[in-house]
Amino acid sequence: xxxxxxxxxPTPDIQSLYxxxxxxxxxxxxxxxxxxxxxxxxxxxxxxxxxxxxxRDGGRLLECTAAMARRxxDGGRLLxxxxxxxSTDAQDLASLFLSPAPGPGGAFPPLPAFxxxxxxxxxxxxxxxxxxxxxxxRQIAAFARPRDVVVGLSTSGxxxxxxxxxxxxxxxxxxxxxxxxxxxxxxxxxxxVDHLFVVPxxxxxxxxxxxxxxxxxxxxxxVTYLRERTKP
Length: 232
Hints:
Order of helices and strands: HHEHEEEHHEHEEH
Structural class: alpha/beta
Helix content: 40-55%
Largest sheet: 5 strands, parallel
Strand content: 5-15%
CATH class: Alpha Beta
Number of helices: 7
CATH architecture: 3-Layer(aba) Sandwich
């Protein structure tokens, strides 16, 4: 695909993601082959990344979900939060617990959960009147109860409003779970995160794909633990 003279030149990072879009070749078969290769490479990358994360963190994931199950069994709730794409992941995570799909053994029981990004009025009021850094911490301070669980998602692990939210959650003795990418960023330096899961990839796309798998595992393992606890 050739650019017009008026179009800005794509960055090398963008070109490396989809090289076939910026090829000068007019050979359509060669372009299709590049598309196929790019698709295969990306699929292989995410499969290998998911496997490496679960090989490394499988045991810790079981410990984390057992702790989550105990909190839910004692009346706790889940509070999820993140920015941008991670905010939609937080909403998806909350919806998994609230509106579970049928799984092995039948439908999972719904559990109390909500995303701290849902209320636009609260988010914009806090951002405008106080500062964006407190949009999650203030809600945790107001809404959280002692047995609650908080899950913060970030690709970089550096979002100031997540760091403050974890610190506030720890003050209230909540169970804190972080899901980050790259090398974990500043989240990896916090004492206020009980369980941190890092997806070690330089690609934000692969990070978010693997994070989705991670939080689906958090949900399924948690409700599986709860089901085992309630067996006669």
